[in-house]
Amino acid sequence: MKLAVIPGDGIGREVIPAALSVLDAFGLGIEKIPLDIGYGKWERTGSAITNEDMDIISECDCVLFGAITTPPDPNYKSVLMRLRKELDLYANIRPFVPLKSIRLPCDTKEFDFVIVRENTEGMYSGVEELHEDVAYTTRVITRAGSERIAERACILAKSRKKHITIVHKANVLKSCSFFRDVCIGSAQRNGISHREMLMDAMAYDLILHPERYDVIVTTNLFGDILSDVAAAIAGGLGLCPSANIGERYALFEPIHGSAPDIAGKGIANPIAAILSVKMMLEWGGWVEEANSITKAVNSVLCDRITTPDLGGSYSTTDVSAAIAKLI
């Protein structure tokens, strides 16, 4: 397998090397192709990602991605949105399961749900107009886009509890009615039971009762918001991985941002990036190795080898080295 490695900006340059040290512990012989992409490159060259970068990435099987700083500059184009669109990474998969010994803000300690987020259209379609007195962002919801994310959710549900929750705002948005109806049709064709939740009610209930949910399917913006809500429930952004999946390519990344306030201090939590490597190994067929990462992470957490965000005093590399040693 050929892996494009994009540390990006900020703490991405710390957590991705840490995650790679865990990957290297397996000795799988994965070919790693490092790429300098992101805000730092944009500051130096005027381009965060070039066509040549995309050519190299398209020759790889998947991407391990750190974090990108996005400045408030209208001339800056989102790297992640370009990667998702050009590689057609239409499904954003974010699993949420509590890790051992992590203090959770909710009463229940037992939950296991996955947010399946449409990743290429919706409010992030890039169809926008900015004028002096008004701005427009067009929410694009297509049948093809809705069907394939619903099918992805149903495939996942078949391996779990054969049930999906469809999240929308069909009470006020016709585009949500369209998305909901397509998802219901997919569930019925696949023999998957379903229920519907309005986005605001879903955010409320997910905080109180995360154990009620299994596979959650929703649109781009709503999935983005719910993922951060879920991260808080699961113990923090530093613990949560994600996968961006397409028919040909995949990209794996921690869900946190570049965190410039702590960048360079060596205290960023590498576990989200390490668990993103776990998802990459699952995608690549190395299931046993992926499972060993989960075991090693839980063991290190139980030994209280944690970064300051979890109340510890260990560095980024201390944590990754402890996990790699167990592997």
From TrEMBL:
Enzyme Commission number, as recorded: 1.1.1.85
Entry's Gene Ontology BP terms: isocitrate metabolic process; L-leucine biosynthetic process; tricarboxylic acid cycle
Recorded family membership: Belongs to the isocitrate and isopropylmalate dehydrogenases family.
InterPro entries: IsoCit/isopropylmalate_DH_CS (IPR019818), IsoPropMal-DH-like_dom (IPR024084), LEU3_arc (IPR011828)
Subunit and interaction comment: Homodimer.
Top EC category: oxidoreductase
Stated name of the protein: 3-isopropylmalate dehydrogenase
Cofactor: Mn(2+); Mg(2+)
Source domain of life: Archaea
Keyword flag Manganese: yes
ATP-binding is among the record's keywords: no
Single GO term (MF): isocitrate dehydrogenase (NAD+) activity
Keywords noted in UniProt: Amino-acid biosynthesis, Branched-chain amino acid biosynthesis, Leucine biosynthesis, Magnesium, Manganese, Metal-binding, NAD, Oxidoreductase
SMART domains: Iso_dh
Record domain Isopropylmalate dehydrogenase-like: where: 2-323
